[in-house]
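Let's study today's protein:

:::
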Amino acid sequence: MIKAYAAFERGGELKPFEYDPGLLKRDEVEIDVKHCGICHSDLSMINNEWGASQYPLVPGHEVVGTIASVGENVSDLKTGDWVGLGWHAGYCMTCSSCMSGDHNLCASRRPTIVGRHGGFAEKVRAKAPSVVKLPDSIDRESAGPLFCGGITVFNPLVQFDIKPTDRVAVIGIGGLGHLAVKFLNAWGCEVTAFTSSENKRTEALELGAHHTLNSRDSSEIDEASGKFDLIISTVNVKLNWNAYLGTLRPKGRLHFVGATLEPLDASVPLLLGGQWTISGSPVGSPGVIAQMLDFAARHKIEPTVEKYSFEQANDAIAHLRSGQVRYRIVLSH
């Protein structure tokens, strides 16, 4: 039996829960969970905001731990390895996306906390290809958020061949945005942070931004006209996207990693005139996750985290709901 913490109803508190995972499949590994980040997606699943939740629901998809056991067909991982598990716990491994290295775009990809139990537990299972080894030099206690928030903002740098000479802006300095600023600074880019909070303007500079702009001040946005090669939006609210498009250089890109639910109202004539691109991306493939971890280890990039024990999970979730987290939460056994 695996001991875990689960929500038993929509929006419910987490309570102790045990389940029998059955026999370990030949292509699976079982991880002893040491640390697990809390992401807003966990909260969305607890609240069934996407209509995909099944109760009891064990959240947790930013897992760091050690391999407890491996299936008989697993050869690249061994007992005792320090590993991480993110948003996906399995892929079909046969479709064109998987075969070309874009596992995160697999139509049969299996989210870690949708239809299965996640990492708010003593142990969690996943298909071996979705589990990535940690570099020896990376901080294990804070590494969990890299497997969701970190890879979400790192993936566009790889996908769109972002150059060290590029000027890049980040909208929103929170759980995603603070990592985007850290990565972009280490990548060599000139980094600008858009934020509506005066306190976060100072924090953004400390995180590695070279400039800040007030996202609620239209005059500051207008003054940045034609400045950026890339804008990464990490927020989940509707903004004046045409104003942000106006800050792009010719052939620039407005890229979404934050899941705003409002339809975009971008002006097509503006897009045509600047030959601009609007795009979005999910988390990255295991290969890009490994690349991100190596980059983070080399440049000593760590998520800024607040720490709780697993027994304090409900307190941690309440803190997340408050919107006062700086900038991610990690639970530890």
Q: What stands out?
A: The CA atoms of residues 155 and 284 lie 5 Å apart.
